Automatic annotation (TrEMBL):
Subcellular location: Cytoplasm
Catalytically driven reaction(s): (6R)-5,10-methylene-5,6,7,8-tetrahydrofolate + 3-methyl-2-oxobutanoate + H2O = 2-dehydropantoate + (6S)-5,6,7,8-tetrahydrofolate
The keyword Nucleotidyltransferase is annotated on this UniProt entry: no
A GO BP annotation: pantothenate biosynthetic process
SUPFAM superfamilies: Phosphoenolpyruvate/pyruvate domain (SSF51621)
Cofactors: Mg(2+)
UniProt-annotated binding residues for Mg(2+): 45, 84, 116
Organism, scientific name: Nocardioides agariphilus
Family, per entry: Belongs to the PanB family.
Protein name per the record: 3-methyl-2-oxobutanoate hydroxymethyltransferase
Job of this protein: Catalyzes the reversible reaction in which hydroxymethyl group from 5,10-methylenetetrahydrofolate is transferred onto alpha-ketoisovalerate to form ketopantoate.
EC numbers: 2.1.2.11
Entry note: cofactor: Binds 1 Mg(2+) ion per subunit.
Subunit structure: Homodecamer; pentamer of dimers.
Length: 264
């Protein structure tokens, strides 16, 4: 089993074979998900919340994401590693986007990059694609535009569905190899998936996408607190860590640890 390439994802779509994507921000999660057969690992700008302790994805910087991207790309044997371009690092111009993307590939070892936006991002997508940077687009609810969009809300309801379809076609025509659709009604996402030849990757976009993505700390229960409706919890990693940490602390306190077997 060799590396997953962007063309493999398109071939999977042609065969009607779904694939999965998860976030990863460091070595052990990346190795584990790679071994589990997750085809695509995203070093998301959601590291802003999940690594750096911010409340939104807006504050995270290129310089903060690059070391995480390098850690993940060094740790996988098979998965396609996507570097997520953070807010402010690509919107100003195609040239700005290209310079940022090159850093993610050269310094971060990313195999491709993701950026948020539809029609308005086609100049960026065209220049990156021409310059050897495969681009994954991201439409629907785009968290970097939270304040412009007026909060976390489903995009493409009712008569705004055609905007999502137009954006999807525009980014495909510009050369994107895949598109994430976030918080889009299931029927709209299904229609986009049917009309596009590139794979669609849903998060809160229903069952008819070609692939799915989740933030692993949400899906596997490292993060506690309120979850979006689209998150399914597959594990309770936080409970495992909490129990282990409490047991360790108790054993140190009462002198059970270290035992003779841990002592030189
Ligand atoms: O940063 C991120 O985690 C993402 C996914 C939710 C698609 O962009
Ligand atoms: Na992101």
């Amino acid at each position: 089993r060799g590396r997953i390439r962007t063309h493999h994802l398109r071939e999977m779509k042609e065969r009607g074979e779904r694939f999965s994507m998860l976030t990863a921000y460091e070595q052990y999660a990346a190795q584990t998900f790679d071994e589990a057969g997750i085809e695509v690992l995203l070093v998301g700008d959601s590291a802003s919340n999940n690594v750096y302790g911010n409340e939104t994805s807006l504050p995270v910087t290129v310089d903060e994401l690059l070391p995480l991207t390098r850690a993940v790309s060094r740790s996988v044997k098979r998965a396609l590693v996507v570097g997520d371009l953070p807010f402010g690092s690509y919107q100003r111009s195609p040239e700005q986007a290209y310079d940022t993307a090159v850093r993610f590939m050269k310094e971060g070892g990313a195999h491709c990059v993701k950026l948020e936006g539809g029609r308005e991002m086609t100049p960026q997508i065209e220049l990156l694609t021409r310059g050897g940077v495969p681009v994954m687009a991201h439409i629907g609810f785009t968290p970097q535009s939270e304040h412009a969009l007026g909060g976390y809300r489903v995009q493409g309801r009712g008569d705004t569905a055609s905007r999502i379809l137009d954006d999807a076609h525009a980014i495909q025509d510009a050369g994107a190899f895949a598109v994430v659709m976030e918080m889009v009604p299931g029927d709209v996402a299904g229609q986009v998936t049917k009309e596009l030849t590139i794979p669609t990757i849903g998060i809160g976009a229903g069952p008819d996408c070609d692939a799915q993505v989740l933030v692993w700390q949400d899906a596997f229960g490292l993060r506690s607190g309120k979850m979006a409706k689209f998150v399914k919890q597959y594990a309770d990693v936080r409970a495992v860590l909490l129990d282990a940490a409490r047991t360790y602390a108790a054993e140190v306190k009462d002198g059970t640890f270290p035992g003779p077997e841990h002592t030189f």
